[in-house]
Amino acid sequence: MGRFLGIGIDYELIVSEKEAKRVFSSLEEVTQKILDEYNVADVYNIEKIETDKDTLNVFTLKSEIIETELYPFTKDFFSWRFPHGWDGLIADALSSIKPIKTLDELLEYAKHSDRDDYLFQNDEFGDNKTVLLNENNGKRFYFRRNSFLLSADGKIFMECYNEIFYRIAELLKEKYRNYKISKAIDVYITG
Length: 191
What we know:
This protein has one domain. 40% of the residues lie in helices and 26% in strands. It has helices at residues 17-23, 27-38, 63-81, 89-97, 103-112, 155-161, 163-175, and strands spanning 4-16, 44-50, 55-61, 122-123, 129-133, 140-154. The protein is globular.
């Protein structure tokens, strides 16, 4: 079926002590690097979980973030990402999440969602994230994440509608707005 360009919200990050010690000196060092690099101390609760095989630090999206920001953020994101509304699809998706107030409610919704558009479904196929390269040894650190989808675009969809590329170009133009040449940036498929 192919791969998709997904945009999602990570509701859980799982950091393994075994993997951490392969790249860094400790689980605590990696945890601090994640907090510093991604600036997420106010977004996730962190719980240390001991298993028979490993020790894990599990970052879980705070329920108060879901309660206060899920609906307004998603509404703003969808108006930016899907400016034409997609024939009521976006209004329907928004109405389905409006009553959700906790992470557990969101996970329950995602588990039972059979939306054809994949919005708010648990993304089982997403790649692991890469934390910083360890400057001391040149190794990369990977950790697991669990997320739900806000948007998924396959190659044909991207080629036909080009909206996601237009949105990425907007972000690049904003990032480099101090340079006039940035107004000429475009994002597209080539080759």
